C-alpha cells in the first residue's frame, strides 16, 4: 500500500508573519511545516489601496528551513499589472530556470517560453469560439493529439460549423450526444455517465474505470490491476490517496509520500517521510507534463 498525502492538509504547524523590513501590519507570508519536517512558505502581494486585498502570490519556498528544494517566484509587471503572471523563476539548488508569458487583448495566453526558448517555447492561436491551437513551430510533447495552426488565422484544426475537432485534421474522432469525446485520433476510447463524468477509458491497451460519490468527487480509480482510493476532508478538499500496487516498490519507493503543489494545485515536489525528494514535476502552461531533461 502506497500513501500520498497532500502536504497542505497534513501540517505540523502554521505560522504567519512579515518579511524583514515590512512597514505595515499585513501578513506577508505563511509558513506551513509538514509532518516530515519540510517547510513550505508562501509570500503574498497586496493591492495598493485602502482595501489591502491579496492580489498575488509572489513566491513559494520549499525546503528544511529555506528554499533549498524548490523556489517559485512570480512576476506580474509594474506598470500594467492586471493579475496575469508575466514571469516565473524556478530555482532548484543552483539551477535557475526562467519562464516568460505574453497575453493577447483578451488576456488569453499568446506565447510562453523557457530560458528564452532554448528549453521550449509555444505560441497559441484561438478561433472565434476560443478553441486553442498550438502553432506548428512550437514544442509539442504529443503532436498527433494536439490541434495545430500554421498562423494566427489558421483555424482548420476545428470545424467552425460544429465547434468540434475537424474530421479532416482528426479523422475517426467521435463524440456522444452531449459533446463528450468518445474516441480520439489514436483510437483511445472514453465513456461517460448521465452527468457527463468519465467512467471508463481505454488508452494504449490499458483500461481504467472511475467511481464517484454523491457530491461528484472521484473517490476511486482502477487502472489495470492497480486501485487508487481518494480521501477528502469535510470541506471537500482532496487530502490523501491510497494505492494498491502488486509490484514491489523500487528502492526508496512505497510508504508515505507528501505531494507539494504550486499555486495552481499542480504537484511540483514529492518527498518521503524522511524528507528526501522522491520526484519532481514541471508543466507546460496548459498542464502537459514536461519530460525530464
Keywords:
single chain; about 290 residues; mainly beta; ten-stranded mixed β-sheet; 25 strands; about 45% strand
Polypeptide structure, described:
The chain has 293 residues and is mostly beta strands. The chain is 0% helix and 47% strand. The chain contains no helices and 25 strands. It has strands at residues 2-6, 11-17, 29-34, 39-46, 54-63, 70-75, 87-92, 95-103, 109-114, 120-126, 132-135, 148-149, 158-159, 164-165, 174-175, 181-183, 189-192, 198-203, 206-212, 218-223, 226-232, 238-244, 255-261, 267-272, 277-280. The protein has an eleven-stranded mixed β-sheet, with no helix packed on it. Strands 17-18-19-20-21-22-1-23-24-25 form a ten-stranded mixed β-sheet, with no helix packed on it. The protein has a two-stranded antiparallel sheet with strand order 13-14. It is globular and about 55 Å long. The model is unreliable at 9-27 (pLDDT under 50).
Amino acid at each position: 500500500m502506497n500513501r500520498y498525502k497532500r502536504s497542505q492538509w497534513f501540517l505540523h504547524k502554521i505560522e504567519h508573519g512579515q518579511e524583514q523590513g515590512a512597514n505595515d501590519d499585513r501578513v506577508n507570508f505563511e509558513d506551513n511545516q509538514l509532518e516530515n519536517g519540510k517547510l513550505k512558505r508562501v509570500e503574498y502581494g497586496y493591492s495598493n489601496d485602502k482595501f489591502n486585498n491579496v492580489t498575488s502570490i509572489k513566491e513559494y519556498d520549499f525546503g528544511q528551513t529555506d528554499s533549498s528544494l524548490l523556489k517559485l517566484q512570480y512576476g506580474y509587471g509594474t506598470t500594467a499589472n492586471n493579475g496575469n503572471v508575466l514571469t516565473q523563476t524556478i530555482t532548484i539548488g543552483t539551477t535557475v530556470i526562467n519562464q516568460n508569458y505574453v497575453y493577447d487583448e483578451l488576456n488569453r495566453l499568446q506565447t510562453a517560453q523557457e530560458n528564452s526558448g532554448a528549453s521550449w517555447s509555444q505560441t497559441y492561436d484561438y478561433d472565434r469560439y476560443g478553441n486553442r491551437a498550438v502553432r506548428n513551430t512550437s514544442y509539442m510533447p504529443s503532436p498527433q493529439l494536439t490541434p495545430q495552426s500554421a498562423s494566427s488565422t489558421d483555424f482548420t484544426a476545428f470545424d467552425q460549423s460544429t465547434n468540434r475537432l475537424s474530421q479532416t485534421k482528426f479523422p475517426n474522432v467521435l463524440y456522444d450526444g452531449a459533446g463528450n469525446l468518445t474516441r480520439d485520433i489514436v483510437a483511445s476510447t472514453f465513456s461517460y455517465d448521465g452527468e457527463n463524468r468519465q467512467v471508463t477509458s481505454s488508452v494504449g491497451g490499458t483500461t481504467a474505470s472511475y467511481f464517484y460519490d454523491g457530491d461528484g468527487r472521484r473517490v476511486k480509480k482502477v487502472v489495470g490491476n492497480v486501485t487508487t482510493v481518494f480521501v477528502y476532508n469535510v470541506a471537500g478538499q482532496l487530502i490523501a490517496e491510497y494505492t494498491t500496487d502488486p509490484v514491489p516498490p523500487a528502492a526508496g519507493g512505497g510508504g508515505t509520500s507528501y505531494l507539494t503543489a504550486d499555486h495552481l494545485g499542480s504537484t511540483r515536489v514529492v518527498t518521503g517521510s524522511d524528507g528526501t525528494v522522491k520526484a519532481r514535476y514541471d508543466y507546460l502552461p496548459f498542464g502537459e507534463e514536461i519530460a525530464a531533461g
